[in-house]
Amino acid sequence: EDVVNPLSMPFTRSANAAIDKVRVQHAEVAEMLSGYGDSDLLCYRADAPAGLVQRQAETWDPYLDWAAAQFGARLAPRTGVMHAGQDADALARLSRAVHALDDFELAAFHDLVGLSGSLILGFAAAHDVAPTPEIWAASRVDEAWQEEQWGEDEEATVTAEIKKVAFLHAKSFFDAAKQR
To answer: Alpha helix locations (H) across 78-178?
Structure first.
């Protein structure tokens, strides 16, 4: 009764982050998040097995297509994990969209991008491209595949659920920020 537990107040915690952290370094936060575009999760694909290759393409290509139509920013998939830079003009377009977010939106967007590992999925959530749980699941294609092949890792499942709850909260906070 007499103790304030910030963990029990996620919207207050997010608002505090927007005011105390993002507002004082908006450009830096926006630039850091923009950097995800050059190494976006959706662009790094497996070369095998065929089932995973197909699942990645079927799940991730529609989001890349949406971003190309929405922002005029086509990010190109690559096979493997070695970095290969993306088109500078596409990255600049995505960066402008990130920098245009206000402090509260950017605080939420930080979690949407950071938790999913994808600038494109962060934008997809912000723009309601698909239901939020579906976007979260898209960020976990590789993990879901591994679980199907080798079984559930209980610790990884618990961690993933915590991150999913945080992702869903970030989307709710983003939506609330848009309505202010």
So the answer is: 88-99, 103-116, 119-126, 132-138, 141-150, 154-178
